[in-house]
């Protein structure tokens, strides 16, 4: 394999007509990493990837690789590989011809093409599939061929746009591991687009969370998961419960207390929230404890509204005595109408700026 990149830096604005779909979307990352663009449908992930690939022009901005500006180069001069959601294999061509296509354009000797196609088929674990047509392959096999077709050209940067979203849940998990294996074994730099937070967290060294064309937060998977910077990222990362509060007191090491809706909530924060500031206290459904004999800080009464059995645990929706609704995942057996005590362990509660703030990088 040819060497991958050492660094990538870009800042892009993109408008379609009067609609701005990427607003100064920028990033600076080291190479040899698995990077994901994560965000809801329509937030601009594919547009950003296509601009990096050179498939569509940016309205404004620049893209730099290893200190060299590359946004004026046509796609074929960038040396990137691309894998799309719908595989985009040539249906009238065999697996062999699909993978060989780029090498033939480069007028490589026939013997070299044969060898490299064979190596790629071994790599994606489909040896002997040369003469099949795409219609004779399963979705997972087609996606392996699409990956082989991208990798055979030894791309210095691999771009993948929701490559697994057409596959069923079980195959998705298998192929996810497969992509990570290839990335690691070949020492690639990969940018992977997805709207699935589990996929992003399990694959990535570096996660970039986007909303409406704006970078909301970039960090390691663990940072994004444990320390979302704002309400949007927290919501995307599974903090289902949000309580508007006013900060009552601030202690050492980010300990903070707030009041709202007649509740006094203790948590921690990484933001400069002074007494009197408006904030949002957030907790995941999995982190709420349910039981009769609970007490201490953050203990509240509630009444069970809905119980949904999920197998190992229940999803419970209850109404807190103070008024707000609460989503809980608990192995405890509770029934609708029952009164229960819930506790938010203070170390699991994060305080964030009100929604719409906490965005700047
Ligand atoms: N060629 C185009 N002309 C006009 N608007 C476009 C064009 N391509 C994309 N858009 C708009 O740009 C926004 C971002 O689209 P994009 O495809 O990048 O989103 P996405 O994050 O990839 O979404 P998804 O997860 O659904 O694939 C959307 O509002 C979309 O409607
Ligand atoms: Mg897309």
Shape: elongated
Helix content: 10-25%
Ligand set: adenosine-5'-triphosphate, magnesium ion
The CATH architecture name of the largest domain reads 3-Layer(aba) Sandwich
Number of domains: 2
Give me the number of helical elements: 9
CATH level-four homologous superfamily name of the largest domain: P-loop containing nucleotide triphosphate hydrolases
Query: Which H/E pattern describes the elements?
Result: EEEHEEHEHHHEHEHEEHHEEEEEEEEEE
Structure description:
The structure is a single chain. It is built from 9 helices and 20 strands. It is α+β, with helices and mostly antiparallel strands and 361 residues long. The chain has 2 domains: 7-231, P-loop containing nucleotide triphosphate hydrolases (Rossmann fold, 3-Layer(aba) Sandwich), CATH 3.40.50; 240-352, Nucleic acid-binding proteins (OB fold (Dihydrolipoamide Acetyltransferase, E2P)). The strands form 4 sheets. The protein has a 6-stranded mixed β-sheet, sandwiched between helices. A 5-stranded antiparallel β-sheet has the order 13-12-11-14-20. Helix 3 (95-105) runs parallel beside helix 5 (139-151). The chain starts with 6 loop residues before the first strand and ends in a 9-residue tail after the last strand. The model has no long low-confidence stretch (mean pLDDT 93). It binds adenosine-5'-triphosphate and magnesium ion (MG). Adenosine-5'-triphosphate (ATP) is lined by residues 16, 21, 39, 41-47, 195.
């Amino acid at each position: 394999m040819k060497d991958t990149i050492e660094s990538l830096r870009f800042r892009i604005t993109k408008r379609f007509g009067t609609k701005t779909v990427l607003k100064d979307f920028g990033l600076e990352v080291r190479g040899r990493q698995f990077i994901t663009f994560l965000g809801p449908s329509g937030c601009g992930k594919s547009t950003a990837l296509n601009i990096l690939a050179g498939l569509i022009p940016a309205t404004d901005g620049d893209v730099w690789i290893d200190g060299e500006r590359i946004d004026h180069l046509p796609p074929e001069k960038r040396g990137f590989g691309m894998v799309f959601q719908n595989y985009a294999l040539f249906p009238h061509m065999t697996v062999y011809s699909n993978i060989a296509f780029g090498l033939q354009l480069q007028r490589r000797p026939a013997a070299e093409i044969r060898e490299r196609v064979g190596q790629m088929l071994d790599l994606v674990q489909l040896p002997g599939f040369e003469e099949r047509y795409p219609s004779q392959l399963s979705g997972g096999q087609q996606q392996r061929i699409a990956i082989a077709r991208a990798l055979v050209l030894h791309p210095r940067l691999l771009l993948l746009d929701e490559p697994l979203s057409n596959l069923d849940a079980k195959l998705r998990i298998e192929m996810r591991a497969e992509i990570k294996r290839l990335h690691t074994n070949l020492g690639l730099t990969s940018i992977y687009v997805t709207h699935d937070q589990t996929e992003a967290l399990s694959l990535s060294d570096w996660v970039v969370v986007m909303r409406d064309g704006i970078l909301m937060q970039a960090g390691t998977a663990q940072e994004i998961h444990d320390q979302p910077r704002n309400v949007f990222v927290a919501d995307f990362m599974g903090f289902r419960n949000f309580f508007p509060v006013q900060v009552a007191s601030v202690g050492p090491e980010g300990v903070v207390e707030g009041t709202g809706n007649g509740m006094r909530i203790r948590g921690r924060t990484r933001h400069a929230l002074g007494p009197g500031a408006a904030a949002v206290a957030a907790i995941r459904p999995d982190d709420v404890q349910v039981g009769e004999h609970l007490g201490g800080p953050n203990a509240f009464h509630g009444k069970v509204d809905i119980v949904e059995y999920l197998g190992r645990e229940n999803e419970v929706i209850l109404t807190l005595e103070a008024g707000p609704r609460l989503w809980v995942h608990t192995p405890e057996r509770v029934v609708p109408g029952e009164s229960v005590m819930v506790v938010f362990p203070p170390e699991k509660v994060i305080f964030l700026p009100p929604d719409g703030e906490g965005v700047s990088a």
